[in-house]
Amino acid sequence: MTDEELEKLIKDIDESIDSLPEEEGRRRDVLSFEKETLQRIQAAREKGDKKQEIVLGARLVILKSLGEKHPFLASMAMSDLGLELFH
């Protein structure tokens, strides 16, 4: 993913969060975690920390595949990687 794609994705997630009604709490939380993860990937990339970028990429994949429908499973999968979903 290029830096431009990363920026666009963060912006798109911001817009999605803003457009969601308050009743969509779980979706809002998952999008917020995705945004935070993307921002951390961006920071790791700027520092040149490839290891952190890869770990955060794995976190993002888990969030996208399990986060909304199965938050408990996502949390368990990420804890196996030493990551926290709910902090």
Please characterize this protein's 3D structure.
The chain is an all-alpha fold and 87 residues long. It has one domain (3-80). Helices cover 77% and strands 0% of the residues. The chain has helices spanning 3-19, 25-47, 50-66, 71-80. The termini are far apart.
Summarize the structure.
Helix content is 77%, strand content 0%. The chain has 87 residues and is mainly α.
Global Rg: 13 Å
Distance, first to last CA: 26 Å
Residues in β-strands, percent: under 5%
The percent of residues in helical segments reads: over 70%
Structural class, from helix and strand content? Answer: mainly alpha
Largest sheet: none
Principal-axis shape equals: flat
Q: Report the strand count.
A: 0
Descriptive labels:
87 residues; 4 helices; mainly alpha; 77% helix
List the helices and strands and how they pair.
Elements: H1 3-19, H2 25-47, H3 50-66, H4 71-80
Helix pairs in contact: 1-2, 2-3, 3-4
